[in-house]
Design brief:
Structural class: alpha+beta
Shape: globular
Radius of gyration: 22 Å
Number of strands: 17
Largest sheet: 9 strands, mixed
Distance between the termini: 33 Å
Helix content: 10-25%
Order of helices and strands: EEEHEHHHEHEHEEEEEHHEEEHEEE
Strand content: 25-35%
Length: 463
């Protein structure tokens, strides 16, 4: 690629609320999202066929913009606020969380009895990047669907918040492997608007590569190879096909691998444990430990919440509703709900059972995002003249792929945990929680409050 130089647990009953320490094990998931724009200049406006393929991948935060010049946006070199309570970042975080739960509810309505797993920050960041090149109603719909009130929140403020989140998530850590990136693959000869190119580089630290899309097979292999490499082989074949009229592919990716602060010991994993799926059960490996974790019961939503920290600046929430109350819980999810859980959980000794599993999901978001208000971007009314004036572009596909692995250890730390389990297993344990039926999980960046991943495990044996 040519670089572009542009100016059922033993101690639990079926009705017992179980709580478990987050098994988001050793190497939770990778996400991808790419957006493919296609060149339609040679077709009448009324007959334009969309070719913007969008594949989402975890990366910074969602940024919203409504007609703003690059000079009014924060520059890459400008210092990011040091406080995580920074107002722009807080607004972005809260809006992104609400967007995450709204999208979750849409996905669940399509497949209520299947596993759900995606990266809200990946999808919103991709949409925010797309908004940088959108004008008129196209831009407004994107930003409002992400949860921003453009009357009360200036877009420059929103961009400052996104820049803060992106910067925070990219800070290297010896305890947490969190790799995010933004990449543009553009058609050879496509003239991008200078403001758009500068903004995506400054705000999202994007790389830009010139690509020959006339050879669709070669272009697809190059993009997929790049994604596979950056996600350490977790996400493969992100893009299944490309159209010859493709003008640009925007890829946002995230790779997340972390060690549990208090890992499980494989010695205590039961290899064939019953997990309730519908009216039947499947056998799963069930991890087990007794430790001090933040835990609480939410009587309003009839669920138990277990928080398990990673080594590094990330945490996982495992949410187990009372049997038959999953739908009630799903309909009540909001940023307020997550804040409430974060505040009322208290550390206590808990006996935890949680399945060891891997899941992989793929979504065609072009059928879902228009129902959330992003309509014009996907039809002939699309206005992406902020990206290029020489081509008429619209979104034809929005695909999202995510992979998650939940396991016992974070590597060498398992032995210490085994000792702890042996010593503490019968010491002051007042509660047992077993994730042996459908539960929710969230992985959150603690510094910014950003929801990195969100999902529901219906069947841990399905990959």
């Amino acid at each position: 690629m040519e670089s572009v130089n542009c100016t059922a647990c033993p101690h639990s009953t079926a009705n017992e609320v179980s709580v478990v320490r987050s098994p988001f094990g050793p190497a939770p998931s990778a996400y991808f999202r790419s957006m493919v724009l296609s060149s339609l200049a040679d077709l009448p406006r009324s007959k334009m066929a969309s070719s913007f393929h969008q594949v989402l991948l975890v990366v910074s935060f969602c940024a919203s913009i409504y007609c703003v010049s690059s000079s009014s946006l924060p520059s890459k070199g400008s210092p990011c606020p040091s406080s995580t309570k920074d107002i722009p970042a807080s607004q972005v975080s809260s809006s992104n969380t609400n967007f995450a739960f709204r999208l979750y509810q849409r996905l669940v309505s399509k497949t209520p009895s299947q596993n759900i797993f995606f990266s809200p920050v990946s999808i919103s960041a991709s949409l925010a990047t797309l908004a940088l090149g959108a004008h008129a109603a196209t831009k407004t719909q994107i930003l409002q669907s992400l949860g921003f009130n453009l009357t009360h929140t200036p877009e420059a403020t929103i961009q400052q918040g996104f820049q803060h989140v992106v910067h925070s998530l990219r800070v290297p850590s010896k305890d947490l492997d969190l790799r995010m990136g933004n990449v543009l693959f553009i058609k050879k000869g496509l003239q991008l608007q200078t403001n758009f190119l500068n903004d995506v580089r400054r705000l999202y630290e994007s790389e830009v590569f010139s690509t020959d899309f006339s050879n669709t097979s070669t272009a697809r292999k190059r993009i997929n190879s790049y994604v596979e490499k950056e996600t350490k082989g977790k996400v493969v074949d992100l893009i299944q096909d490309l159209e010859p009229k493709t003008a640009m592919v925007l890829v946002n990716y995230i790779f997340f691998k972390a060690k549990w602060a208090k890992p499980f010991d494989p010695v205590y994993t039961s290899s064939r444990y019953p997990f309730l799926v519908g009216k039947t059960t499947v056998k799963v490996p069930m991890m087990h430990q007794v430790e001090k974790f933040a835990f609480g019961v939410d009587p309003e939503l009839n669920c138990s919440v277990l928080q398990m920290d990673y080594s590094g600046d990330a945490t996982a929430f495992f949410v187990l509703p009372t049997q038959g109350r999953m739908r009630q819980l799903e309909q009540s999810l909001s940023s307020r709900t997550l804040r409430k859980w974060s505040h009322f959980l208290q550390e206590r000794w808990i006996e935890v059972f949680i399945p060891k599993f891997s899941i992989s999901t793929s979504y065609d978001l072009e059928t879902i995002l228009p129902k959330m208000g992003i309509r014009d971007a996907f039809d002939k009314n699309a206005d992406f003249s902020g990206i290029t004036k020489r081509e008429s572009l619209q979104v034809s596909k929005a695909a999202h792929k995510a992979v998650l692995d939940v396991r016992e250890e974070g590597t060498e730390a398992a032995a210490a945990t085994a000792t702890k389990l042996t010593v503490k297993s019968n010491d002051g344990v007042s509660q047992s929680i077993c994730f042996n039926r459908s539960f929710l999980l969230l992985i959150v960046n603690k510094a910014t409050g950003t929801v990195l991943f969100l999902g529901k495990v219906e069947n841990p044996t399905e990959f």
